[in-house]
Design goal:
alpha+beta, 3 helices, binds 2-acetamido-2-deoxy-beta-D-glucopyranose
Length: 231
């Protein structure tokens, strides 16, 4: 059941999309394809993000938000986590739509009113198969929070309690495109869970906070999209 708001928001997205590259022929819901030939497109002038020697297990589109709080001492926003829905890209990996899908999805996502969820937008606009969710949990070390990619409630891993990965950042580079707008590209290593041993966040769009803040301002959320590769 779609609200009028969603229908009107989606029709404005169709207008936006007409200027963008053609939409892929969407695979059927629930369908995933072979990832053995999928390759990350990484900048060559850096050593932080290194392509693993094995093929990726999952290639996903993330559609979500980055959360920030204003530090009263530095007057800059600091990250307090993120929440995203993860959609399967394996079936469009070799199509022309793949390269810019994060940009097409971001245009749709940023045009949506706050009442429309990332899961709704991603599934309608980008890729119908929801792989799972990305969010933060208290770190097992007892200090701070850790990012988690959780496939335990969706798709073929539903009910499988080990189908997650809790990870720790192992390296990063500024986004090669518009680094003050687009969040960093990252590599993270498994700390817990059986889903994957390494995760990469690349091809980011959006997610960066304003450069400074006024002490006492409320926490903010900034929409973003990216690709995630799980190895
Ligand atoms: C981020 O903000 C959203 C929206 O306010 C909230 O639902 C979510 O729990 C927050 N997550 C973290 C890790 O702060
Ligand atoms: C690598 O190249 C990108 C794109 O040309 C550039 O924006 C970036 O600053 C370079 N990074 C380094 C570490 O040289
Ligand atoms: C549960 O998920 C893990 C991680 O994805 C996988 O390695 C394992 O084979 C799954 N177990 C079953 C019974 O499907």
């Amino acid at each position: 059941m779609f609200s009028f708001q969603l229908l009107s928001a989606l029709s404005s997205v169709v207008l936006l999309a007409s200027a963008a590259p053609a939409f892929p022929t969407l695979p059927k819901k629930g369908e995933c394809c072979d990832t053995s030939a999928a390759i990350m497109d990484l900048p060559t002038n850096q050593t932080q993000l290194v392509t693993p020697t094995t093929a990726p297990l999952f290639v996903a589109l993330g559609v979500g938000i980055q959360n920030y709080t204003c530090s009263a001492t530095t007057l800059k926003y600091t990250s307090t986590g993120a929440v995203a829905s993860l959609f399967d890209l394996s079936c469009i990996d070799k199509t022309p739509a793949f390269a810019n899908i994060q940009t097409v999805a971001f245009k749709a996502w940023s045009a949506m009113p706050a009442s429309i969820s990332a899961t709704t937008v991603g599934a309608k606009i980008a890729a119908p198969t929801l792989l799972g969710f990305h969010y933060f949990v208290p770190s097992p070390s007892g200090t701070g929070i850790s990012p988690k990619w959780d496939f335990t409630s969706t798709g073929k891993f539903a009910g499988n309690s080990t189908a997650f990965v809790l990870a720790a950042k192992a390296g990063s580079i500024s986004s090669p495109v518009a680094p003050t707008t687009n969040v960093d590209w990252l590599t993270l290593n498994n700390v817990q869970g059986a889903l994957a041993s390494k995760i990469f966040r690349i091809d980011t769009v959006g997610g960066q906070p304003p450069a400074s803040c006024v002490a006492g301002t409320a926490d903010i959320t900034v929409k973003y999209t990216s690709k995630y590769y799980l190895y």
